[in-house]
Amino acid sequence: MATNLENKISRVQTNVTKALAATAAKGVNVPADANSDDLESLILAIENGTASGDGREPVIATLNVTENGTYNAPVGIDGFAPVNVNVNKGVELPELDNPGSAAEIISNEANVAIYELDMALSGDSYFSAMYHNIDTLKEALQ
What we know:
This protein is mainly alpha-helical. 40% of the residues lie in helices and 4% in strands.
């Protein structure tokens, strides 16, 4: 029968194993031979964003999306799993001679109403324009 001390040692070993697994699940590179002595630096790697676990700053890069497809992080870049992009092109708008009609074209194509907000440029007080905008938003949300 296990003694009280053996039970405590077993519990600590189990908790260290769980903590290492949870740290790895957060993206930190946990060495195979990691033990309780490594927990502090591995946990700090999560907080500092150094997922490699080696204390270095993460290597980041801009993700440039140019078309639908799957984008993978280039070699040596930390931080993102494959990103799947599938953007529906939606409504194609014709060339507009009058850019002011863009809202009307979109409204007609999408079958939605247009609500104009006051930019407070007409000389009215700022507050009266904002109160008017609140009323307009309430109407639009009904």
